[in-house]
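S., here's the first fold you wanted:
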Amino acid sequence: MAIDLASNVLRPSPQPVPWHSIDTVLLDMDGTLLDLRFDNWFWQEHVPALWGASRGLSPTEAVRQLLPTFAAAQGTLAWYCIDHWSEVLGMDLYAVKDAVREAVCWLPGAEACLIALRAAGKRTVLVTNAHPGALAVKERQLGFLHRLDAAYSTHAFGAPKEDPRFWPALQAVETFDAARTLFVDDSLPMLAAAQAFGLAAVRAIRCPDSGRAPKDTAHWPAVDGVADLLVGLTAG
């Protein structure tokens, strides 16, 4: 265990992935492969500013009024549902997000990591809480899905990744061997749910947002970014 002097965050010592016993890699999207800076800006600044402007509110007042509404949905599938928020806020959030999609970008080393994993014979699977509509916007911008063997939005299963009901539902479709699967995410509750389901290995992402300091990942084995997972990986 070490202290990150730049951020004063407790930093778990890196734990190399036991690649010899891993066949499948389940990967989160926002904050793991794609820079969470876009989503943090979009939901915490851009959407409140637009919503507030239409009501004569300052950005600060708009955020203050929206916080309880957002907080009430946290931890549920509605929290991630662009349809839900379009209805609640009275905004076409598909159009709003698509209009600024050029700000969507990879996290450093993420695309190269996917290429290396597939070259090594690992099955790479995207597992995201993002609504299919939001996923489609990001795919239009980056065209990244061809780098993966499969991609799933939790909306198709009726439960988010932090809900224990999600994992057996995913396994029924993807048929991965939990004992030979690695799950990577920037959300600690999602790592906890995956571990409780019995996945062999999990890794937290410490730097999901390129504009913010590394996050405290508590006791979870962590890497700054997915490129750091490749230590010890050899091409198949």
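And the second, which I think is the more interesting of the pair:
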Amino acid sequence: MKQLSAFILTYNSEKYLDRIISQLGKTCDEILVVDSGSHDSTKSIAEKHNCRFLFRAFDNFKNQRTFAVDNCMHDLVLMVDSDEIPDDELILSLNKLKNGEVLLDAYRLKRDWYVLGKKIHALYPVVSPDFPVRLFDRRKSNFKNSPVVHEEPSGYQSIAVFGGALHHYTFESKQEIKEKLERYTTLSAETLLKKNKSLSVIQQWLSSIASFLKWYFGKGGWKDGVTGIILAKYAFDYTFMKYGKARKKVQSSE
């Protein structure tokens, strides 16, 4: 039988953690929680389920995930975010894989997104459902070439879509949108700088307007009513803020 490690990155993640770990406990041989300084009940929930609990100060998601993968006990690794609940079909599929199916290098998992309590069609920078690589053999995949945010492993030679789904609950309030905008755009500004793109004010406005139009009309946000408008504005604000932060960083270094 194949041995499976799962890891979860946490920071004040008590809301869904008990439900996530309860599901993972039906199939995983190890559950690793990598925390970046929670001051809620995250640690006690993890300990209740006998998870391994490690602390690492957060710098970016790429490095946090690399640390987690390196500390997993088994080579077959599943990564689940602290607001993603695996469904029963996914657990069943994982048990079948462990019990004899031929193992590929990596697998994409279906992920359905929920915003403000509503299942949605698009949230910058993904459509819903999307199919990220979340299950992989760490001997054949890693985060070496991944950006620091919206990160995903690479290096695999064989890949397939896996059965089941993750239900991703994000932005349950407008305050959460503001908090994630601030955090993620700081990281994305670093990626933007590495691409050596124009950081002019004109480019900032053009890219931001294009983001609104793309995610509202092109990606189907209009199907989500008022929530779609809120998320199209999120795409605008995200783009505008990352350009502004990148330009400010350049100016401060001159």
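Why I say that: DSSP finds seven helices and eleven strands in the chain. Residues 4-170 form a domain with the Spore Coat Polysaccharide Biosynthesis Protein SpsA; Chain A fold (CATH 3.90.550.10).

Talk tomorrow,
H.
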